[in-house]
Specification:
alpha+beta; Ribosomal Protein S5, domain 2; Alpha-Beta Plaits; seven-stranded mixed beta sheet; four-stranded antiparallel beta sheet; 14 strands
Length: 313
Amino acid sequence: MIDPMHPCSDGHVSNCDGSPVIASKHFTLDSPAKLNIFLEVIGKRTDGFHELETVMLRTQWFDQLTFRPTKSSAITISLSDATSADLVSGIPLDHTNLIVKSASALQKASGTSSGAHIILNKRIPPESGLGGGSSNAATALIGCRRLWDIDISDTELHSIASSLGSDINFLLSGVQAAVCRGRGEVIEPISLHRKLYFVATRPPAGNSTPAVFRRTQIPSAPQRSTAVTDYLMRGTGNLNALMFNRLTDAATQVNPDMAVLLKRIPRIIGRPAFMSGSGSTVCVVATNLQDAWSVADRLKKTCHLPVWILECG
């Protein structure tokens, strides 16, 4: 039991770290995964990061964060009992977790002395290219602003987000789809012409994002996302032919098991497979929800790996 709660004499309860919390004020927020259907590396920035052009979709698959106020200024996190045992070892519960980093940054920016205990129900695997950690950070910013009832604007939240990671701003924005540039913090929302469905799986091992970027070759003539955005907005073209991820070649060097999936899935399903983010998640496009269930069933029976249906829009 990672989050034991025990009543105390003054009507409060105590967290697993012993700090008191007001049970009546807690609330839970969804923390959705993202999917990159286009990702190009434009160049290397002076700050050491890479200049990107990427098209991201917000999915309806999510982690959950439960926020509880405490009487101390400490920011602590724990995992819910619902978190799968195979994910536990990959999730730090100290100051290195993006939830704690983002909440601490908001605490400092706002000058509040309030603290929080945050319970994470983790579903999105770490190092999967689905932005689980970034989404948790964005949700922590939104949740702690509400929990602490502080007067800080969306613009200020985005400024904090941009200092912490490349995907956080998109997930903080709440938009369904966007072209993201810079490190990912420059967001241009896209209206989707219809719902989209993808079927995703991944090998047991994840991908280290820094390791993938170190091996990525920057192109002399970068591709642009115009054709993908036209499809999303108007349905023009064939999405299978338009999806692209510059990081794929480097990621296959980092994770040979993922490389095998990228080759095997097209033989099983009869359609292309692509990688999200820096991997290791591999996805295929489904024509509708019924098709998604059919594809998911075939992948489960042949690959013997976890499979998810990702609905976007």
